[in-house]
Write a structure and sequence with these properties.
The chain is an alpha+beta fold and about 80 residues long. The chain has three helices and five strands, in the order E-H-E-E-H-H-E-E.
């Protein structure tokens, strides 16, 4: 199953940067000021792996339309 999200982002470029090389295969569109829609097809998830997708999405504040919950972006630093 694909992933459908609403992302808190200033522009589509912010989402494109987070997704990197998979961005061209995803549907990215402006919803409103500060909100970007994102749809990642199942074939993309299957080809690169769910872990890779999750690591890319971890850079974004996003609302998962399937689960109905906001997911906050993870900080770039880690505790040991």
């Amino acid at each position: 199953m694909g992933v459908q999200l609403v992302v808190k982002a200033a522009s589509e470029d912010e989402v494109n940067l987070a997704l990197g090389n998979i961005a061209p295969e995803c549907e990215i569109f402006i919803i409103d000021v500060g909100l970007v829609g994102l749809s990642i097809p199942t074939k993309v998830i299957n080809s690169v792996g769910k872990e890779i997708i999750d690591s890319k999405l971890a850079q974004l504040n996003r609302f998962d339309l399937w689960s109905g919950a906001w997911c906050e972006k993870r900080p770039k630093w880690k505790f040991w």
